[in-house]
Task: inverse folding
């Protein structure tokens, strides 16, 4: 197995898990079969991330716009989410994974809300991989919710508007406390963010892969990390050679 040197390992990898439907279509299978296979890729990727010693992994599982899909497909995705919690929680606990969910929460079924709460509670003290699922998540919704909350605080005299800085704003987002993603991977060839981590992606390296999500595995992740290691990040400044 090839792997990037630990020193160049990103602190936070975020993945837009796209292409389940196309993976299934290629095989003359229903879209749901693609989502099921995608769950296997989630399992494999989380195991690989743990083994590589990655600090933070965020996986985009369901967007706030995915409710627009046919009811049957939404139902299948919710069913898979339940199945994942039931089948994988013990292993995640064993692997010292801390699990969190970012997203709306209030719109999904009550039993799923309960599973989310239980899993976050059960893994809260774990110190290994921080695994975040973006589930019923939309970046614009997240930013609007944060602005709404800060406006309310200002109106009630709990917040001085003059103190609002990017750092303060970030500390009120769902992702507070997690470093911004260094690397955002999108599988299956589309070159867009589709409302994922809009604020947090300001200086992320973007990597678009043709691989459909169900085919994503340890080797593809390792390859992505190698590509990341070869990127030069400047954050608006000049690289050291240009300064010298
Ligand atoms: C990603 O695969 C999974 C979700 C968005 C939930 P898609 O279902 O978007 O697959 P394609 O893009 O149609 O191939
Ligand atoms: C983005 O994929 C959402 C997830 C991967 C969960 P979509 O398939 O929903 O995005 P669009 O519709 O192609 O932009
Ligand atoms: Mg898609």
Result:
């Amino acid at each position: 197995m090839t792997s990037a040197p630990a020193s160049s390992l990103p602190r936070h990898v975020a993945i837009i898990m796209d292409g389940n439907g196309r993976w299934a279509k290629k095989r003359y299978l229903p879209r749901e079969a693609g989502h099921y296979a995608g769950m296997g890729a989630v399992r494999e990727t989380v195991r690989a991330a743990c083994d590589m010693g990655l600090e933070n992994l965020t996986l985009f599982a369901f967007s706030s716009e995915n409710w627009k899909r046919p009811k049957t497909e939404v139902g299948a995705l919710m069913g898979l989410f339940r199945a994942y919690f039931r089948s994988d929680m013990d292993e995640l606990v064993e692997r010292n994974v801390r699990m969190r969910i970012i997203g709306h929460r209030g719109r999904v079924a009550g039993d799923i809300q309960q599973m989310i709460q239980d899993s976050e509670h059960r893994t809260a003290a774990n110190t290994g991989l921080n695994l975040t699922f973006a589930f019923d998540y939309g970046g614009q919704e997240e930013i609007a919710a944060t602005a709404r909350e800060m406006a309310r605080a200002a109106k009630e005299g709990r917040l001085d508007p003059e103190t609002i800085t990017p750092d303060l704003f970030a500390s009120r987002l769902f992702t507070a406390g997690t470093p911004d993603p260094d690397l955002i991977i999108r599988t299956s060839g589309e070159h867009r963010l589709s409302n994922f981590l809009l604020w947090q992606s300001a200086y992320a390296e973007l990597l678009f892969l043709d691989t459909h999500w169900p085919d994503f595995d340890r080797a593809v992740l390792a390859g992505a990390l190698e590509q990341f290691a070869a990127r030069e990040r400047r954050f608006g400044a000049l690289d050291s050679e240009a300064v010298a």
The longest strand covers residues 56-63.
